[in-house]
Amino acid sequence: MASSLHNLLNKIIKTGTLTVRGSGGEQRYGGGGGRTVTIRFTDEAAERELVNDPQLKLGELYMEGRLLVEQGDIYDLLALVKDNTLAQGLSFGMIWRGIARIIVSQFRNRVPINHNRRNVAHHYDLDEKLFSLFLDEDWQYSCAYFNPPGISLDEAQLAKKRHIVAKLLAEPGQKALEIGSGWGGMAMYLAESSGVDVTGITLSTEQLKISRERAAKRGLANSVRFELQDYYYLPADKSYDRIVSVGMFEHVGRLNYRKFFNKVNDVLADDGVMLLHSIGQPYPAIINNPWIEKYIFPGGYIPSIAEVMPAVEKAGLLVSDIEILPMHYAYTLRHWRQRFMANKEKAAAIYDERFVRMWEFYLAGSEMAFTHEKFFIFQMQIVKKRTAVPDNRNYIYEREAELKAFEQRRVPLDKIAV
User: Fold this and answer.
1) What is the pLDDT, as a whole number, of residue 187?
2) pTM greater than 0.85 (yes/no)
């Protein structure tokens, strides 16, 4: 084994057991009492590459099959390292603080608006069959809401939509905007449950196509429409009573927060309500994870609430409610990873084995950020007038009860005849 790797692992692994098989035979690190993981390097060069650039190379070596996990899985390896680096307070440059930055990374510098579509296409314009392998029946690609605890992924994603729509206080005849409409599930739920006319905007051509097909199948062509549109270019002379954005704010970039909320202020009605659902982290990030930036989410950034609030205030908007969901994305990601790995042969048939390992690494590293790094989901309710929402939260739970009744009557999409 490369001496530099031996020295690094000997310094890091104190709790648990890491067995490493490589060019110099087998070495064991750690004092036991925690996770037990065994890895193997297929070539000596891989050992040196990992030491030279751990944040990028750990993921790449796993993708390439040059680092194999022979006992446990890749999540166990990442968690074992993080168990130790957190306990010892080691620098993120040592090995793995970068992956804990989670899912997306900040802009290297100011990214022009016209790069947004390219960045979105990198991830969301993948083959639709891939997402069908691990998402719920409504293709919700954002954090679910596991309330009550222990419910299924499908139930939790439905609970997420219910919870968000309840906070919107939507009423029949209103006009709503969804910024980042995904595959259309939220927009269709909002329209059907609340009698709202919804416009969803996206930068993904694949999501746009599928959203329109799904809305047509549900017979919602007159009340739900989807457009290929950047939020930045929304016309200011058109206003919406309700705005919702779920899992899109992570792609805005911290240098564009002011632009984002200025645009919200332009298009939100004076008595309107917005619900922003986003991943958050407990402190502003110092550095992006280069592996996530390169392979998964180019041009993204996970905000801290402290970075978001000034932009909201400077845009002349008010925050009327904030809810923190600390572990719900960890549960969601674990469901996704388990489903994805159960279908890994199908994923490999769509792409290849390298792609499967890349996505396993992405899902495992993202989950670990919530289990080990205090990442969370925040739901921020935003208004222009304080009187736009009640002064207590009882209305949320009352509306959720009404929405549950609606869900009992709603016909599932797969039961609708074409």
Assistant:
1) 98
2) yes
